[in-house]
Design goal:
This is TolC family protein. By secondary structure, the protein is α+β, with helices and mostly antiparallel strands. It has helices at 2-15, 26-36, 38-53, 113-179, 185-219, 242-252, 254-274, 322-389, 394-428, and strands at 22-24, 64-81, 87-109, 228-230, 280-294, 301-314.
């Protein structure tokens, strides 16, 4: 019996790190995801775009400089009748006109809309930063959840492996008893069926573990065929307090931060719309060159160059009451943004309270199922000893064996659910639950 129990514990020890495989910790998995995950990389690029958009030129504060060049040529058969009655004609008469220069335009007043646009661009940059943080939290939470789900399923596989070792020992014992006439062939066949069932469960469990490894590799955006060992340990943050979590969420939850920025952007949009009530003043200047040639005409050629300058002002007098409508719509958008802040705050608080309650329940289940797992292990050892000396039946032993596997499964499931609840809480308050 001691040899068999030793084999059982050996299986669990081997599950912590398989030979020939690189051990991947949850921290390393998160670091790889931060570097490789496509959603995170795309969100980083979107944030870089938002950063690039914050400029005075994009807000319309800077002048625009344009280089112009125009060349027009014609070849015509022309006839001219002058005031004196003389007629002049020329075949293939050439006419060439060329203009080039530099134009500068600068809007110096547009109802202060350019300043509110610049502020909007800065708020959009902050929004991009919070969006990046949100994506990072979501993908990192996915990595952590997948990793610990893999830990749970790997531990269950180890329990099945230990059960197979015991089933093989049972089969050997049953065959020895059959050979000396102490049991019938039926008992041997029943034990063989149990062993085959364990082997079948093991194959299915191996498939679950391998698929989880593929899913984790996919989240890490690396070769899906990479095999690795895992650290089969759960660490819990047992210091979580609901009141503290709710306070942290107010300042760190990405969704609340994004919603608050949306209100600020809506308020700036009101200023943009109101700016249309004021005139727009634009300065224009430039330096232009002009040359022309004509084979037939009073002027054979001419050229000019010089500075041009002026000012343009325009104001909206009547646009079918669209200005008033746009202002009203902009104000309603501000009200909606304010309502969405309250709605999102309630949603976050509800989610945290629910996740916290689930976390407390799962932590209690971890303690309970750990005791049950120890009892089931002890019961299996005692039952194995009784089976070896022939004081219990095969059916009774199989019940103890299945109870052990069920207890291990429930214990691992309780640990996983507690960890997933912790991960969900940390994601809601804007933290990573390593």
């Amino acid at each position: 019996m001691n040899r068999i129990i030793g084999f059982v514990f050996l299986i669990f020890i081997q599950s912590l790190g398989l030979k020939g495989q690189e051990t991947l910790t949850v921290k390393e998995a998160v670091e790889i995801a931060l570097e490789n995950n496509y959603d995170i990389r795309l969100s980083k690029n979107n944030f870089l775009i938002a950063q690039e958009n914050v400029s005075y030129g994009n807000a319309g504060m800077l002048p625009s400089v344009t280089g112009n060049f125009t060349q027009n040529n014609s070849l015509q058969n022309s006839t001219q009748v002058q005031a004196t009655g003389d007629t002049r004609s020329l075949n293939n008469a050439k006419n060439n006109n060329m203009n080039y220069g530099v134009s500068i335009g600068w809007t110096i007043f547009d109802g202060l809309a350019m300043f509110s646009r610049y502020d909007q661009l800065k708020e959009l940059e902050k929004q991009g930063d919070f969006q990046l943080k949100k994506v990072i939290l979501m993908r990192v939470s996915d990595v952590i959840a997948t990793y610990y789900t893999l830990v749970e399923q790997q531990n269950l596989l180890s329990a099945i492996d230990s059960s197979i070792i015991i089933s093989k020992e049972r089969l050997q014992t049953a065959e020895n008893r059959f050979s000396i006439g102490k049991v019938s062939r039926l008992e041997v066949l029943n034990v063989q069926v149990n062993l085959n069932e364990d082997e079948s469960n093991r194959l299915r469990q191996i498939d679950v573990v391998k698929n989880l490894k593929i899913s984790l590799n996919s989240l890490l955006a690396r070769d899906l065929t990479i095999d690795f060992a895992i650290v089969a340990e759960f660490d819990f943050d047992e210091g979580l307090q609901l009141a503290e979590l709710l306070n942290q969420a107010k300042t760190q939850n990405p969704d609340l931060q994004i919603i608050a920025l949306n209100k600020r952007i809506a308020e700036l949009e009101v200023k943009n719309v109101r700016a249309n009530r004021y005139p727009t003043v634009r300065l224009n200047t430039g330096y232009n060159f002009s040359e022309s040639e004509s084979s037939l005409g009073f002027v054979a050629s001419s050229s000019s160059r010089g500075l041009t300058y002026g000012i343009t002002a325009s104001v909206n007098i009547f646009d079918g009451f669209n200005q008033r409508r746009n202002e009203r719509v902009a104000k309603i958008q501000v009200d909606n943004a304010d309502l969405m802040i309250g709605q999102q705050k309630l949603l976050v608080e509800t989610s945290i309270a629910t996740a916290y309650q689930t976390y407390q329940t799962n932590m209690a289940l971890v303690v309970l199922e750990e005791k049950n797992e120890k009892i089931a292990r002890q019961n299996l050892g005692i039952t194995l000893e009784k089976y070896r000396i022939g004081t219990i039946s095969t059916v009774e032993f199989r019940d103890a064996q299945e109870n052990f596997i069920s207890a291990v499964s429930r214990f691992n499931s309780a640990k996983l659910q507690a960890k997933l609840s912790e991960v969900a809480i940390k994601e809601l308050i804007g933290q990573v639950a390593l």
